[in-house]
Amino acid sequence: QVQLQQSGPGLVKPSQTLSLTCAIYGDSVSSNSAAWNWIRQTPSRGLQWLGRTYYRSKWYNDYAVSVKSRISINPDTSKNQFSLQLNSVTPEDTAVYYCARQEGGYKSWGQGTLVTVSS
Amino acid sequence: DIVMTQSPDSLAVSLGERATINCKSSQSVLYSSNNKNYLAWYQQKPGQPPKLLIYWASTRESGVPDRFSGSGSGTDFTLTISSLQAEDVAVYYCQHYYNPPYTFGQGTKLEIK
């Protein structure tokens, strides 16, 4: 049973960088079959896929077009985790952020982190 | 982007009765090379992350009760709960994972009548 544990601040100031980490237990971030995703959820926009990182002999990333200029998702093999960085945040980025493991569907999810963008 | 549209937005069903939720994708999510539909269903309860119920459109995730079933192919899919239990009250989402971005439906809120 794979478990994901999220960490990171719940409050970020406008124009600053949102940073979250997802620690992986029971699998490897370098898995050749899984992909590691970030998703966010708001009442108005629902569930929004942000991007993913995955390893298939080398590292790959896919990002949602809506955040592509501001987002970076990176693996950390030494700590078996992956991270989300979202630059130049605005109040529109206020949401519950989830990390999730993809193998087919999203079988494992982090607990969720409410991130509020406010001064 | 593939747009996922669920119907209805909300649904009230009596305990023990059947609940049916529909999901339509704006383009086919059937991958011809392996004949698999890249479609999943999730259940979300308040304060919790979504929980995977069904993947490949009709494969039940381990531990999910067999009253949950998925069907459909191409662009039209259905989640059926054969006999509604009180613990099934939740919001249900479909999602495609055919190619990025992996979009979700808007959700269907299921309540007890």
Notable traits:
heterodimer, A: 119 residues, mainly beta, B: 113 residues, 6-stranded mixed β-sheet, 4-stranded antiparallel β-sheet, 0% helix, 50% strand, globular
What this model shows, in words?
The complex is a heterodimer of chains A (119) and B (113). Chain A is mostly beta strands. Helix content of chain A is 0%, strand content 58%. In chain A, the strands form 2 sheets. In chain A, strands 2, 4, 5, 6, 9, 10 and 11 form a 7-stranded mixed beta sheet that branches. In chain A, strands 1-3-8-7 form a 4-stranded antiparallel beta sheet, with no helix packed on it. The N and C termini of chain A lie far apart (39 Å). The model of chain B has no long low-confidence stretch (mean pLDDT 97). Chain B contains no helices and 12 strands. Chain B is mostly beta strands.
Mean pLDDT of chain B: 97
Q: Point out poorly predicted stretches of chain A.
A: none
- Report how far the terminal alpha carbons of chain A are from each other: 39 Å
How many helices of chain B? The count is 0
Overall body shape of chain A: globular
The backbone outline of chain B, from C-alpha atoms, is globular
TL;DR of this structure?
The complex is a heterodimer of chains A (119) and B (113). Chain A has 119 residues and is mainly beta. Chain A is 0% helix and 58% strand.
